[in-house]
């Protein structure tokens, strides 16, 4: 499990968000609400879908599955000039990201993420940075398929 380290410029997103926890996961509900309206978003940068998590400060210091965070279903846009009704905006600041390729069914994603945070990150030259985390679901993404592939972006900074 060796990621690419990439510097990303600021990204702009339009989508929908929900507060949730790992214990009260509302991801399906979020995407069910977002998908029928995604075609209303103009000025898209690519065709990829973004699953974004915005964690409050200190979220990872002591794991609590009931602790709330904000999750987004979104697309990247060039600007915020045309924001459809009932949609929200999010800006992700520039910075370093560890980029992992996840292959497999989304039901196994928790194990993959646990390995990043419990094994790779502590043994790397990086610390977790306080920026949004996201998964990019492009042309190789196949919902709930063992053949699915997505990119996982974890915000990092040098120790």
Overview of the structural elements:
The chain is mainly β. It has one domain (4-158): Multidrug-efflux Transporter 1 Regulator Bmrr, Chain A, CATH 3.20.80.10. It is 13% helix and 39% strand. The protein contains two helices and nine strands, in the order E-E-H-E-E-E-E-H-E-E-E. It has helices at residues 27-34, 109-120, and strands spanning 4-8, 11-20, 49-54, 69-77, 88-92, 95-103, 126-128, 133-137, 149-158. Strands 1, 2, 3, 4, 5, 6, 7, 8 and 9 form a nine-stranded antiparallel β-sheet that branches. The longest helix is centred in the last third of the chain and has 12 residues, at 109-120. The two termini are 19 Å apart.
What structural keywords apply?
single chain, 159 residues, mainly beta, Multidrug-efflux Transporter 1 Regulator Bmrr, Chain A, 9-stranded antiparallel sheet, 13% helix, globular
Produce a short descriptive summary.
The protein has helices spanning 27-34, 109-120; strands spanning 4-8, 11-20, 49-54, 69-77, 88-92, 95-103, 126-128, 133-137, 149-158.
What is this structure's SSE topology?
Elements: E1 4-8, E2 11-20, H1 27-34, E3 49-54, E4 69-77, E5 88-92, E6 95-103, H2 109-120, E7 126-128, E8 133-137, E9 149-158
